[in-house]
Every structure is written in structure tokens, then in C-alpha cells.
Design brief:
InterPro entries: Acyl_CoA_acyltransferase, Bact_Acetyltransf, GNAT_dom. Pfam families: Acetyltransf_7. The protein is an alpha+beta fold. It is built from four helices and nine strands. A hairpin with a 2-residue loop joins strand 3 and strand 4.
């Protein structure tokens, strides 16, 4: 991995592609996913304005993103082809450094790979629930979730 750096507006389309294709690859069961155009609009107009985001690069290409907002880890995505090489760990290190009071996040119960990863980097299950609307990865009404928390 080359670097983890703060995201800026010029990264919007590449971040949207990471989110879109990672979601498509890792959660094919998730209904109501956004189109790539919707993800590009949301990344440019919402994500980069309402969160603090960082990107991970390999050979100058963005392969991962983490975004934080008010104590929440609102986005954590790594391209499928970049998983298993420490990208997610580096992004979590940044998230923890930037959130000295701790972090919370929601994960889909069916996303076993993400849950194993979160637990391996120190997140603990708080409770299980059902989402009732928009979720980080798309429209997930009725999809069972797990709330996780990391405390330093």
C-alpha cells in the first residue's frame, strides 16, 4: 500500500467506485443498491461534505476509504482485490487515531467477512437490530444489523 491520506473533492469519483463495487462484490444479496451515478452524486455532495474521510492508495489508485462523523465510523470499504493486504487495518488505525473517545458503527448481520474483520481489530458487539431505512451501503429496509463499538 502506498499511503493513507485525507480525501478531497478530486477523489469523489474514485471513492464512489470503491464503495459501489465493494458493495456489489461483498453484498450481492443486498437489494436496492445504488447505481454508480447515484454513488458518485452522494459521494460528491454528501460524504465529502458531512464526514472526515481518508483514502488508501496502491500504485496511486484509491483502493479503500474510511469516513467518520460524530463518533461514528460511517463508511469503511476496501476494493475486493485489495483485501487481505493490510488496507483495512491501516484505515482502522486512522479512524482510531482520529476518534480517541471511541467509535460506533452498524454492520449487516449477513456481512460475515466485515464482522470478522471488525472483531479482529477490537470492535465489540453492542446489540443486534433491524435497520429501518437508508444504510451506508444502500437502501436496506428490513435488513438485520449489528451495532459495534470500539473503546480505547
Amino acid at each position: 500500500m502506498d499511503d493513507v491520506r485525507r480525501a478531497d473533492a478530486s477523489d469523489a469519483h474514485a471513492i464512489a467506485e470503491v464503495i459501489h463495487y465493494s458493495t456489489e462484490d461483498s453484498m450481492p444479496w443486498l437489494g436496492g443498491r445504488n447505481t454508480i451515478e447515484e454513488d458518485r452524486w452522494w459521494t460528491s455532495n454528501v460524504l465529502l461534505h458531512k464526514t472526515k474521510a481518508w483514502v488508501a492508495t496502491v500504485d496511486g489508485n484509491i483502493v479503500g476509504v474510511v469516513a467518520l462523523h460524530d463518533g461514528w465510523l460511517s463508511q469503511l470499504f476496501v476494493r475486493t482485490t485489495a483485501q487481505g493486504f493490510g488496507v483495512g487495518h491501516r484505515l482502522i488505525e486512522v479512524a482510531k487515531r482520529e476518534s480517541p473517545e471511541g467509535l460506533r458503527l452498524w454492520a449487516f448481520q449477513r456481512n460475515a467477512v466485515a464482522i470478522r474483520f471488525l472483531e479482529s481489530v477490537g470492535f465489540s458487539l453492542v446489540r443486534e437490530a433491524w435497520s429501518t431505512g437508508r444504510h451506508a451501503a444502500g437502501d436496506a429496509e428490513g435488513e438485520p444489523d449489528k451495532l459495534y463499538r470500539w473503546v480505547p
